[in-house]
Amino acid sequence: MTVSLETHRTEVERLLNLADEKRQTRSSVLCPLSEALGRRLVRDVLAPGDLPAFDNSQMDGFAVRSTDLRPAETAPVTLPVSAPIAAGAAAVSLAPGTAAPIMTGAPIPAGADAVIPIERTRPGDFSAPDVTFDTPAPPGQYVRPRGDDIRAGAVLMPAGTSISVAGIGALTGAGLTSVEVEPRMRIAIISTGDEIANGQIPDSNSAALAAASAEIGTQVDRFICADSPAEFAAVLDGLDHDLAITIGGVSAGAYEVVRQVLSPLPDAWFDHIPLQPGGPQGHAVRDGLPILCLPGNPVSSLLSFELFIRPGLARRCGQVAPDRPSGTAPLAEPLTSIPGKLQVRRGTLDEHGQVQVIGGAGSHLLAAYAVATHLIFLPAEIEELAAGDTVTWWRIAAL
């Protein structure tokens, strides 16, 4: 029977949970940091050493002993300048009564406990033989102490953390080159239809869905199956994946191979949802494999993935921002919609912040979808919208 969009979304989430449970039964993966962005840690990562590993300067200036500058409370103090200390230099000592030019990140010399920025000195020149200070310096001024960020053995990142750009930096800064992460979600995308199997129509559907799945960090394999129940069942029998997504074969036609094979299963459902494009939908579980069944028209399948599968899949893949950016804007032109169905159009936002719709409502208009930056949602209860009426949008591409 026909179900609501929310009910269908709930069922998709249930099957994605099953897929995630299958994934969790596989072993973790030792992943190089160069490939770890967006992956999720399986156990706590402990800092192998102090970070920073040594006391270092926060500023370009002069390293000093704060006791040498105490007289500056009443009169300027002038100190002879010792050898400069560059970032990357070996640790040295600072003789009492001297000041050492020091660069940002350079190790604080033994005996020094403060840094005076060069702009607070006279003559404000690293090449001068001596330097004058007009004020004292408290101990620790502009010194980054060893372990200030994290101490050796402390939890650098807890298990379950999705590794972000900053996380890559922190892990690298701690001296790590790889981390143990969850295995990628393995997805089989199966396009059905004789017209695809015999090459009459290019398989654009699975190409688009494979790209959309890989974009959020899944491992994808593509399959093509003719309108043969035996062939489709054989493809399913050969899968070793966490989730299967089928394309086509779910309507009420004579060659609906997906529906024919899966509908007898006790957990199967095939019918329509109040959505245009993308009304025909289905799902099933076969031998423990969750299967999400999408319609065969290219816009319908891609929209179905965007609306129902991508958000939950992205969350399970550890994406930092799994949901598409969204908002509202006025229409630039009037539109009509199908009563009783949520209609999803494709378009852009113009320089005035208005929604410009691209192409028609048809489920075959993939070229218009390709240049759209936004999905435009026309509510099911509204049949006509005037220019200036407010609609909701999702941003699906960079502006």
Describe this entry's structure for a reader:
With 399 residues, this protein is α+β, with helices and mostly antiparallel strands. It folds into 4 domains: 5-26 and 184-316, Molybdenum Cofactor Biosythetic Enzyme, Chain A, CATH 3.40.980; 31-49 and 155-182, Molybdopterin biosynthesis moea protein, domain 2 (Alpha-Beta Complex), CATH 3.90.105; 56-144, Molybdopterin biosynthesis moea protein, domain 3 (Molybdopterin biosynthesis moeA protein, domain 3); 326-395, MoeA, C-terminal, domain IV (Beta-clip), CATH 2.40.340. The protein has helices at residues 5-24, 165-173, 194-197, 204-215, 229-237, 257-262, 298-316, 366-371, and strands at 29-32, 45-46, 56-57, 61-64, 77-80, 100-102, 114-117, 121-122, 130-133, 143-144, 155-157, 178-181, 186-192, 219-225, 243-247, 269-272, 275-276, 280-286, 289-294, 326-330, 335-336, 342-349, 355-357, 374-378, 384-385, 390-395. The chain has a 6-stranded mixed beta sheet with strand order 14-13-15-19-18-16, sandwiched between helices. Strand 18 and strand 19 (289-294) form a beta hairpin. Helix 1 (5-24) crosses helix 7.
